[in-house]
Amino acid sequence: MKTKLAIALMAFAFTASTAFAAEEAKKAPSPAQKAQQDKMKACNAEAGEKKVKGDERKKFMSECLGGKAEAAGNSACASAAAEKKLAGAAKNSYMKKCEADAKAPAAAEAPKTDAAKPVK
C-alpha cells in the first residue's frame, strides 16, 4: 500500500513539474497578438479617462476594438501617446493634433466636384 502511494505521489509530482515547465516555455506573442494587446490597452485607458462604465463601457470597448473609423483613430493616437508617456496637458495637446492629422488625409482623399462647370 505504501509503495502504491509513493508511486502515485511521484507521478503527481512529475506531472505537476511538467505542467509548470510548459507554462514557463510559453512563447512571445506574435506581432498581430501584440498589436491587439496594445489596442486593448489603449481602448481600456481611453475608457478609463472618459470614466465610461457599465453598458456604455461595453459599447465603447466594442467600437474601439472593432476598428470603427473614429475609434480606430483615437486608439492609435492614444497608444502613441501612451508610448511617449504623455500625461495631462501635453497628452491632450498631442491627442488633438494627432486626431486632426488623422482626419486631414481622409478629407484630402475625398473626390472634388466642381458644380460650377457645365457638363458637355
What's the helix and strand layout?
Elements lengths: L1 H23 L6 H19 L4 H13 L2 H15 L4 H22 L11
Helix pairs in contact: 2-3, 2-4, 3-4, 4-5
* Series of secondary-structure elements, N-terminal to C-terminal: HHHHH
First CA to last CA: what distance?
Answer: 102 Å
* Count of DSSP H/I helices: 5
Helix content: over 70%
Tally of DSSP β-strands: 0
Low-confidence stretches: none
* Assembly annotation: single chain
Give the overall silhouette: elongated
Strand content: under 5%
Helix/strand-derived class? Answer: mainly alpha
Largest sheet features: none
What is the C-alpha radius of gyration, as a whole number of Å? 26 Å
Mean pLDDT: 75
Describe this entry's structure for a reader.
By secondary structure, this protein is an all-alpha fold. It has a domain at 31-100. The protein has helices spanning 2-24, 31-49, 54-66, 69-83, 88-109. Helix 2 runs antiparallel to helix 3 (54-66), helix 2 (31-49) packs across helix 4 and helix 3 (54-66) packs across helix 4.
What's the short story on this structure?
The protein is mostly helical and 120 residues long. It has helices spanning 2-24, 31-49, 54-66, 69-83, 88-109.
Comma- or semicolon-separated keywords:
single chain, 5 helices, 77% helix, mainly alpha
